[in-house]
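Ticket reopened. Same input as before:
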Amino acid sequence: MLKRIFLMLFSFTFLNANTVEFAGKFEPGFLVFGKGEKIRQVMLDSKIVDVDENGYFVLGFDRDAKGPKYLKIKYESGKSFVKKINLPEREYKIQRINNMKQKYVTAPNTEEERIIKEREIIREAKKKIGEEKAALYKDGFMRPVSGGVLTSVFGSQRILNGVPRNAHNGLDFAAPTGTPVYAMADGRVILAADDFYYSGNFIILDHGQGLNSSYLHLSKKDVKEGDFVKKGDKIGEIGTTGRSTGPHLHWSVQWFGERTDPALLLNLDLPN
Ligand SMILES: [Zn+2]
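Engineering reply: fixed in the latest deploy. New output:
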C-alpha cells in the first residue's frame, strides 16, 4: 500500500508582508510547489527557477541531493529573502531481486548499439524540458492508474542477482495488460517511443517549468509527440514491454533531471 505522505502546506511571510505559500517537502527526492505575488525572480543556488505570471513555481531535490541549498526570492519591491535549506539524510529501502533472468540484469553486448541510440533519442527529447514556462500542472495531480498493486517504491536500491544496480526512480503499479494509464497532470507529450530496450513503449510528458513525468512498459500508446493532454486523459495502456518481468506501469516524476518521489503528488494540495 502507498504510505500516506504527510502533507505540508506552509508559508513564509516577510517583513514587507509578501507571502509565499509552499506545498511539498524540502527533502531529497521531493518537489516543492510555491506561489507568491510580485516576485521578480526565484533562484535555487545558482539556478533560475521559472515563475509564471500568476506567481507559480516548482523546484525539486534529487534522490541523492545534499544540502545546504539556498532558495532566494527577489521581489519587485527590490527586497529579497533567502532560505537556507538543510536537506536531511534520507534512507532508502534495499530491494533484492534474485532469480532474475540474466538478460534483465545486464544487457547483452549485441544490444549495446541500440541502447546507445535510444539513450540519444531520450536525451534529445529531454532538451525540450524547461522550454514551457507556464505551470501547466497547476490544476494538480492524480494517480495515473486506478487500482493496481504498488510493487516497488521510489528510491529503493536494487540488488539484482546480487549485483547492485541503479536506484529505482519511480513507483511501479502492477495491473493487467490493457489497464488504462492516465496523464498525472496537464502537459505536452515530448516523447512517445516504441519498443526501447529498457523502457519498451513509453511516454514522457512535460508539465511546464521543468516538471516532467514518464510512463513506461506500455502495451499501447494513445498520444503522439506534440499532443497536449489534460489531467486524467487516457494516454496508453499498461503492458510489459522493454525490460520488465510482468505487466506494470513504471511511473516517474522529475524536475529537470532531479529524481523525485511521485507518491508525494498523490496527497498534495497546491497553493492557490
Ligand atoms: Zn519501476
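Confidence is low (pLDDT under 50) at residues 1-8. The first helix runs from residue 102 to 105. Please confirm and we'll close it.
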